[in-house]
Amino acid sequence: MTGSVFVEEITALSEEVYLAVSRLLLQLSPSAGPLTRAQFQDIVESPDIHLLVARAEDRPDVAGMLTLAVFRIPTGIRAWIEDVVVDEAWRGRGIGRLLAGQALKLAETAGARTVDLTSRASRAAANRLYRSLGFEIRETNIYRYTLPNPSLQVIW
How many domains does the chain have? Predict the structure, then answer.
């Protein structure tokens, strides 16, 4: 039950939301490192990134967040969900379902063929949520290559 919680897309820099996102990212991944205001501004101003936040109508705090990336590749328009986190104080109230549902609507409106995401097996509640929304586990390997210094731009 979400009660009086609503989802909004953040499209402009706001100190309040920047601080809330920074707080939520620490709950998601303590090793993620701080997000600078310039990086936050790049995210919210990107036409390919949709930063969704859930808020309570009667309280100013941000209850949760989700990032949806929508992009065109040769095989079609794709979408990817990342950085889904609900504040510890708000968990168990349907906030994740509300955020994911809005992300799926945005992806469909954008013409995406698929929406992908990953979730660690240890995140049992999140995995139950994704399955209940119709996400299916894919038979695939996910590989990650960690760049030695991701802040350096590679010029081809």
Answer: 1
Identify which of 42, 91, 13 has the alpha carbon closest to the alpha carbon of residue 99: 91
- Give all strands of the β-sheet with 5-10 in edge-to-edge order: 5-10, 49-56, 62-73, 76-86, 114-116
Helices (H), 110-154: 124-132
Structure tokens at 29: 């991944």
**pTM, entire model:** 0.89
Q: Which structural domain, as residue segments, surrounds residue 40?
A: 5-132
CATH number, residue 117: 3.40.630.30
Q: Which of 50, 63, 57, 58 is nearest to 115 (CA)?
A: 50
Task: Give the pLDDT of the chain (156 residues) as one tens digit per residue.
Answer: 445 899 999 999 899 999 999 999 999 988 887 889 999 999 999 999 999 999 988 777 899 999 999 999 999 999 999 999 999 999 999 999 999 999 999 999 999 999 999 998 999 999 999 999 999 999 999 898 888 875 655 554
